[in-house]
Amino acid sequence: MNIIKDTKGQGAAEYILLFGGVIIIALVTLQIYTNYFADSAGFSAKTDAEQIRNNLTTKS
Fold it and tell me: DSSP secondary structure string, 14-59?
C-alpha cells in the first residue's frame, strides 16, 4: 500500500510535462513564423535586411 502514497516521482513528471509544453509552444511558433522567413508570403527576412542595409548606406 506504500505505492499509493509514494509521490517521489511526481516532481520529475511535472518537469517533463512543463518542458514538453514549452517545446510544443516553440514548435507552433516556429511553424507560424515560417512563412515570414520564406519568400511565399510576400515578406522575406532577406529582402528586409537588404532594404535596411540600402537605407543605412544611402543616408550616411
Answer: HHHHHHHHHHHHHHHHHHHHHHHHSGGGS--HHHHHHHHHHHHHHH
Grid cell 517533463 in the structure block, residue? 16
For 18, other C-beta atoms within 10 Å of its C-beta total 10
Residue 44's Cβ-count burial label (10 Å; 0-12, 13-18, 19+) is middle
Q: Identify the residue whose cell numbers are 543616408.
A: 59
How many Å separate Cα 43 from the centre of its chain? 19
Give the pLDDT band (50/70/90) at residue 42.
low
